[in-house]
Amino acid sequence: MTDILAAARPARPSLRPARSPWAALAVVLTGQFMAVLDASVVNVAAPSIHASLHTSGAGLQLVIAGYVITYAVFMVTGARLGDILGHRRMFLAGLATFTIASLGCGLATSTTALVALRFIQGAGAAAMIPQVLSLIQRTFTGAARARPMRLYAAVLAGGAVTGQVVGGVLVSANLLGGTWRPVFLLNVPIGAILFLAGLRSLPNGHGEPGRTLDLAGLATLTPAVLALILPLVLGQSEHWPAWGWACLAGSGVLFALFAMVERRAAARGGSPLIPGRLLRLPGAAAGIAALFCVMAVFGGFFFVLALHLQGGLGYSPMRAGLTFAPAGLAFAVVSLNWPRCCAAAGPVASG
Asked: What is the pLDDT of residues 163-178, one digit of tens each?
């Protein structure tokens, strides 16, 4: 949704253009790849985390879902902060937060600390990732933007699957006896190099005048998402207690309240987190609902299959990770060639 809004805004000239457009593209896409990869890289490492930290099933789910929850809640706010403070500044701030949290995850000695740091890592990703598309728009114009956008799509599509493969390879490598810890620690040197490269290559620019934070929307959306997700994550291990059902019911009330808050913000001429006009675009609501269902099934399938391959079939982490390699390759090939696929399918499919 943030990407749709960003694509709808005209590109605004920056104070200092990128010294090398392709160097800037490499920085932002590598940052995006790290953040997307970290949503799934832990799946294959989950059995090793369980053995090392004696993590419960619910704890493992929070280690994985905590990152995604924070990212989902703060992503739109991260995009808005980029409009206000500048996309380069927010990308680098998010990258620094993500990298430091990754170091903490790799050194964590308890499940509680690991879960908390995963939430912080997700917040860093939420500040960093929404800036990627905006920085691409401000670095490339016209027909020159086509290739960067194909690469952007490939990173989005292939990053999650690649995370399964990378996680399996790193856990099996058992670097310095760290088992699952290199899954997070690998981000540290890469993040540090990207930060220094970003200082030199990313275009600088002002924030957009008139853009404000929707604090009321954020204050209602955050508890609504948490009230929906936490019972689904913890409910089974807690034998579906009454508080879980109360949270699920309360999430419906909070989402309704969020819709009211957003309508009032729009009526006052403010900047709601989710503009109502976006949802009224033809096919937008159905597309968002379909995407939600696909990603919910997609993420759950990868998590369960990674556990089953190791715990049920006895695969090593590397073999379990490599099982996902053909899917990652297919995602990358299709993402890089989707314009040709649409053209070959004819005007009905491409329209």
From this structure: 778 888 888 887 877 8
Distance CA 293, CA 234 (A): 20
Q: Is the pLDDT of residue 2 over 70?
A: no
Q: Which residues contact 314 (CB under 8 A, 6 or more apart)?
A: none
Alpha helices in 202-310 (DSSP H): 215-234, 242-267, 276-279, 284-307
Compute the mean pLDDT over every residue in the chain, rounded to the nearest whole number.
81
| Chain position carrying tokens 């990313």 | 202
What's CA 20's distance to the chain center, in Å? Answer: 26
Q: Which of the four pLDDT bands, split at 50, 70 and 90, describes residue 16?
A: low
- 208 phi and psi, to 5 degrees? -85, 125
Amino acid in position 340: R
* Residues ≥6 apart with Cβ < 8 Å to 14: 138, 203, 204, 205
Q: What is the pLDDT of residues 127-145, one digit of tens each?
A: 999 899 888 888 888 778 8
* Contact by Cβ (8 Å): 190, 30: yes
Report the alpha-carbon distance of residue 124 to residue 122 in Å, rounded: 5
**Where does residue 250 fall: left (phi above 0), alpha (psi -120 to 50 degrees), or beta otherwise?**
alpha
Which CATH number, 2.130.10.10, 3.10.20.310, 3.90.1640.30, 1.20.1250.20, labels domain 2-211+317-345?
1.20.1250.20
Instruction: State how far the Cα of 259 lies from the Cα of 245, in Å rounded to an integer.
Output: 22
Farthest-apart Cα atoms in the chain, separation: 59
